[in-house]
Input
Amino acid sequence: MIESKKIKNIGILGTGTIGASWATFFASKGLKVKMYDIDKVFLDRGVQKAKENLDALVGYELVEESMVDNLKKNVRSVENIAQMAEDADYIQESTEENYEAKKKVFAELDTLASPKTILVSSSSGLLMSEIQKATKNPKRCLIAHPFNPPHLIPLVELVPGKQTDLQIVNDMKLFFERLGKIPVVLKKETPGHIANRLAAALWREAIDLVVKEVASVEDVDKALYAGPGIRWALMGQHLIYHLGGGEGGYGYFIDHIGKAFGTYWKEMATWHEISDESKKILVEGVEKSMGNRSFGEVARWRDEKIVDLLKVVYD
Ligand SMILES: NC(=O)c1ccc[n+]([C@@H]2O[C@H](COP(=O)([O-])OP(=O)(O)OC[C@H]3O[C@@H](n4cnc5c(N)ncnc54)[C@H](O)[C@@H]3O)[C@@H](O)[C@H]2O)c1
Output
């Protein structure tokens, strides 16, 4: 398998929201990027978005202006999956989130790419053990799950399947660290990996609070971003509660405040599906919360503030 230090050519399969942002990320690090999407409209839009994102990185002072034209030249689209795969050292797949689609494209990549190419899925929560069953060379297949937008958010969750070579996973950790990301490696796979399981638990409760009319969409969101969200940019729940326990630390927190949480847990939502009625309430609530701001405006504001935050937290 190719050593991560030698990776120069990246293939991007699927150029929607995540594929285009991954393309920006790899190109911004000086790697050559070939993009392919089954839908020509999405392909053209994805390439354009990746180039626009590179310009935005100049604006954020994360890429030098003198470099950007060359970086943009490294991003190009190709007409079919075979052209994307032919000389790729590493392929990042970002197509549809279901086993049928992922298995189909992994089977294709497995035959089209060199046996040395690393095959990586962006899957938000599927298991690589299932996807890699579709390949003849499963040891080079793993999940690298980003957070949207991957060209800005540092986290990447690396998840091996049962047949993945763990040496490749460790090398991928070094690869992403060298590129400035913050990778975590899961010891075993689980649907939703780490971050989306945490997000799923939180989201269900955020929905339930609105549907049970405890608070509005706007106030539930505010209760996150203006409170716990500020600390979450710095440290995770375990360390936060260790500090919350004062001198007694995490043990004290669990014995004392932890008991009160037991009462909340007993009351909390356990449903597994969002009803149509809940969906209607949520969509109306979020539209109200958006006010007159456009989607693009809010997304741009988010990206600018993420960059400001990253500069403060990670220098
Ligand atoms: N959107 C997010 O916040 C997010 C975050 C992390 C990971 N992901 C994961 O990334 C993947 C892509 O998500 P997205 O939000 O970018 O979806 P998206 O719908 O924006 O893009 C998917 C793209 O894949 C293309 N596609 C579908 N089948 C294809 C095929 N056989 N060959 C080539 N292209 C094909 C589609 O035309 C589309 O352009 C999913 O697995 C998702 O779980 C999404």
